[in-house]
Amino acid sequence: MLRSAVFTAARSKDTEKVKKGVWEDNVDPSGGEIKAGCEEFVHVHPKDPQETLLHIAAFNGDADMVEWLDAHSADCEERNSSRFTAFHIALQHGCIPVLNYFFKVYDPKSDDYTSIYATPSSKPVLFIALDSAEPEVIWMILNNGLASTQDIGNAWAWVSSSEGEQSLLKKLGTQRDDILGEIRNLLMTYVLARTDHLYL
C-alpha cells in the first residue's frame, strides 16, 4: 500500500521518498497511516494508528521536513493516540529546531493556535518539556508564556523531590548534576518572578 510505504520512508528518514509520495503520488500528508475503510488492505498495523507524518518528522527532529509537510497541507493540530500534537512530540524529545519552527510560524500567545500547544489536562506543557531534561527546552516554554504559575510551582516541587531528581538524573549524561542544578535554578527564577508580580 502506497500510503504505508510513505510512512515507512518517514520513519527511516527517507525524506525524498516522503516528498515524492506526497507531491507526485498524491498521498494525503494529514491523518494517520491507515485511512478509514482501508484497514483490510494493511498487513502490518502501526503501533499508533493516529501518528501522522508530522509526528514522525518531529520525532526525528527534522525541522525542514516539518516545514515542508506544513506547507503541503499537513495539519499541525492533529493528535496521536496520546493526544499529543507534533509540537508536543518535539518538546518531549528536545528537538529544538522543530520547536523554533513552531514558535516562529504559530505564535504561542495567539488564541488562533491554542489547539497546537494545548495538552491533555493530565500533563501540562511544562511537564512534557521536563521529559526532555533540556534546560533550553524548558526555558522556551517558560519564555513563551506556556506555563501557568501553578504549573511552574508544581514543576519546581517535582524537580526538588527525590522522585523528580531520580527521574531527571536517569536521562542526563556525565554533567547531570550541573544540568539538574540549571533546571532547578531556571524554575526558581520564574517562581520568584511570578511571586513578585503577585505582590506588585
From TrEMBL:
The keyword Hydrolase does not apply. The keyword Thylakoid does not apply. PROSITE patterns: ANK_REPEAT. SUPFAM superfamilies: Ankyrin repeat (SSF48403). Pfam families: Ank_2. It comes from the Eukaryota. ANK repeats lie at residues 49-81. Keywords: ANK repeat. This is Uncharacterized protein.
